[in-house]
Specification:
elongated; 2 helices
Length: about 55
């Protein structure tokens, strides 16, 4: 089996489980950006340069 045949077999990512075949009720990109913004604000407030998560 060549690499080209493996690349061609890839399928588009999709949700699994209870939300499969349904639209997400919220925009997850907006939620992620909000959480990142809050984390950066708290890092600035605590005067830390980095975190280990």
């Amino acid at each position: 089996m060549s690499i080209e045949s493996i690349k061609a077999a890839r399928k588009a990512p999709r949700q699994h489980g209870a939300m499969e075949y349904s639209d997400c009720p919220v925009d997850l990109d907006v939620v992620r950006k909000y959480r990142l913004h809050r984390l950066r604000l708290e890092m600035e407030r605590a005067d830390v340069a980095g975190l280990l998560l």
